[in-house]
Amino acid sequence: MDTTRLGVMPEPILPKESPCDLSFKPITLASLPQIEPFLYRQTYRTCDFSVGGIYMWIDYFGYEYCICHDTLFIKGSEENNLQNTAFAVPVGGVKLPDALQLLKRYCSRHGIPLILSAVPEPAALEIQQLYGCPIVELPDWGDYLYRATDLATLVGHRFNKKRNRVNKFKNTYPDFQFEPIEPHNLPDVIAFFKTYMQEYQKESLLFTYEESKVLQVLHEYDKLKFEGILLRVSGKIVAFSIGEVIGDTLIVHIEKAKKEIVGAYETINMLYAQYMTQRFPDVKLINREDDAGDPGLREAKLSYNPETILKKYNIVLDNA
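Structure (tokenized):
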């Protein structure tokens, strides 16, 4: 009998090695080298499966990790309810149904429901087909995915407004310069961002948290495999952007600019896309992450005409 069609998890078929009971521990800067190889093996393209997507949100979602049977398991909180324990889709050598069975055993031992959160659509559809369970979309957490050539060139009628703002910036500030973020100019970036935090404060715990982690990333920049550029006008920084490459996708984790400088955001966006696609010719797509339900961010991300939005889902498998 095919039990998966009845919504019942079969016993896992695992490698012939000693049994592995999942045991989670906190993610730290020192543990990132253990986690990174698994992120490079998956193809979901969502920011949740990147170093920045995990490391910058450790404290907010309470992320912990476990590596078992050549598979990475991540535990944290549910995207829309931080009170609920939830898990990322496991990635690695164990097939998805078997990895989920290991999570089921863990949850049974600890008396908690098995909830998967921020599940990429391909995995969500596979799980739904396997177990016949409902999947619930998380509309505030979908990632905006763009063609790299679109953002690097802004060619075409649909980018007229963006291109005009870039041209206005270049005409207004003909002495502008951009350069890679490196150890010698990091102090300038940190000083700029500290001023930015004071000038553009938001009454939002989410954004306050995000900005505190941006500052942490800048202080630890030389220890992280991130790439960034900064934009100067008359020698002073007016914008910077930082991200990382996984497979064919550039994931932009940080982008900050002085709002009163017309075209600064559009210019740093375009220059960063150009810079990174030249450094990494295999990059075909750019993930500018989610909007977290913020109307302003949503409007800004949609204005760049995304190729698609990478949907994510919550799935409860407690009864599977």
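The chain has two domains: 3-141+312-316, 143-289. The first strand starts at residue 25 and ends at 26.
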